[in-house]
Amino acid sequence: MHRDLDITIDGVSRIEGHASLELKVKQGVVEDLKLSVSEDKRFYTQAVRGKNALNLPNITSRICGTCSYAHLLCAIESVENALNVQPSEQTVILRKLAAYSMIIRDHAMHLYLFSLPDAFGKESVLEFSEEEMKWVNEGFRVKKAGNTLSTMIGGRAVHPTSLAVGGVASIPKKEDSARIIHDLKEVRPLVLKIIEFFYNSQFSLKQNTRYVSSMNDDFSYLGSSIIDSDGEVIQKSGFMDHFFRVVIPYSEAVGYELEGKDYVVGALSRMNLKKKSLHRDTLKDAASFLSVFPSNNIFHNNLAQAIELLHAVDSSIEILQMDFRLEERVEPVLKEGEGIGVVEAPRGLLYYHVKTGADGLIKDANLVIPTSQNQIRMQMDIKQLVEKLISEDKEKGVVEMEIEKLIRAYDPCMSCATHFLNVKWI
């Protein structure tokens, strides 16, 4: 294989949204690399200005169909902080349940439909044999359980209607909870099976970076402060003092650095930093798999997601056994304020900072998306991978496949950050 290459990848497959890649290799060294998010700009931060703050969650949940719950929950928290609204303990618990339902749905889709074909060396699940398709059928069962849970707690699986500033519109009925507990217990062995599968995966690319996640006591996805693998604790209010926006001129999405250096968010970061906070049943049954963490192998993001699937199932089962009662929603009073929301989306740390006027209308909004935060490190990993493959004299088809596999390991959502790779070799 030539050590001088110009590669253009017009669309990366099996990811959320659209991205392209251009790189130039000379004498085995990557001289230029451009990973660009090619979504059209949608101007959400401008679109919400002048809107009633109470409507912000339903507007920004449309940023992404897959992660709509994460955007809605983060927007709710930021607005509640701006308006000094304190939700009830039951409301917080139900929001955690909503986040777990999102994790089940999203991780099942990524692991079974996007990453599994890589493990089997196939272009997509459409190429699977009858035996291999059993994995996909199991994935649909897991995802269905998550969809059902999302529909019960949020009103529907995507773009929920029952979660709002100050409270929730409905509570789980005992008969519905019992039915979903049954479904979750039925798919739990399947989740343990997919954990073992990705534990045995030999894919590897080691990183030298920092891992960042929100910090909480129970591995829920509603954050308090922020921590990194160097031991630094950052309060939510200090986010923009430490995380700096980097304009990427060839991409529709910006990047972010932590005090001038690259970092990674997502399931791998969460598992590296707070695996001891996982549900007790998950800690017990996944103990041998958890020994992998902390890990600096980006492909262990898949394993981390699989373990999070189990945690979400176990945590949901426990919450659904509680007795819930109808509560009056805390009625917000519109006023001037400033609020911050931090939520762990499936793909990592999601940050909202909003300002409201005296009339309760949004004056300003800043949204920091997980994939934007990973973009700089993702490019660095691609460079490392390509140079390694070139030194091993790998064929161009192998290089293309390995680049896509690496990008998919991050589970990026390009739609949030602003289909896969036809590679042109020049």
Question: What would you note in describing this structure?
Answer:
By secondary structure, the protein is an alpha+beta fold. Helices cover 44% and strands 18% of the residues. The chain contains 14 helices and 15 strands. It has helices at residues 44-47, 56-60, 68-83, 89-120, 133-154, 174-199, 239-242, 267-274, 280-285, 287-290, 300-320, 370-391, 396-409, 414-417, and strands at residues 5-9, 19-26, 29-37, 163-164, 167-168, 210-215, 225-228, 233-234, 243-246, 255-258, 263-264, 337-345, 348-356, 362-368, 423-425. The strands form 5 sheets. A 4-stranded antiparallel sheet has the order 3-2-1-15. Strands 8-7-6-11 form a 4-stranded mixed sheet. Strand 2 and strand 3 (29-37) form a beta hairpin. The longest helix has 32 residues, at 89-120. It starts with a strand and ends with a strand. Residues 415-426 have low confidence and may be disordered.
